[in-house]
Write a structure and sequence with these properties.
3 helices, globular
């Protein structure tokens, strides 16, 4: 079950899983995916995530450093942000969440979960990665 951790500052609007899923379906925000390169250096890239349900996230990634890092470590972190730069109050300028992600693989111990999500998500292709959302953290 996805754990939601409370914000330290509560200065921004923080999304829960249902709100994230709805926002991603509307393409309201963007996702920054953070991984670790093989040499230990950080890697970040912008991708458009999707959520087939409230416990899983899908990314479509070509062969690149982010994908290689995810396949090697089985982990990624995603910051999802919906900016509202015209908002008068600081607390309304950003909505979103930070997510800890665990890669589901078509083989091995996560195969059953992977196949359940893949069957329910119509846009699966060879570039699709499926993740379990391990934690949802506030952005503010």
């Amino acid at each position: 079950m996805t754990e939601r951790i409370e914000s330290a500052t509560n200065k921004f609007t923080n999304m829960d899983a249902a709100t994230l899923k709805d926002s991603m379906a509307k393409f309201e925000g963007m996702g920054i995916v953070a991984t670790v390169n093989e040499d230990g250096s950080p890697n970040a890239a912008i991708f458009m995530p999707a959520m087939p349900d409230e416990e899983h996230l899908v990314l479509v990634l070509a062969k690149n450093n982010s994908r290689a890092n995810i396949e090697r470590t089985g982990k990624a972190h995603l910051v999802y942000d919906v900016p509202n730069p015209k908002a008068e109050e600081k607390s309304a300028r950003h909505a979103g969440a930070r997510l800890d992600l665990l890669l589901l693989r078509a083989e091995g111990e996560t195969a059953e979960e992977y196949n359940q999500v893949a069957e329910s998500y119509p846009r699966i292709n060879p570039a699709t990665l499926i993740f379990r959302i391990e934690n949802i953290y506030p952005i503010g």
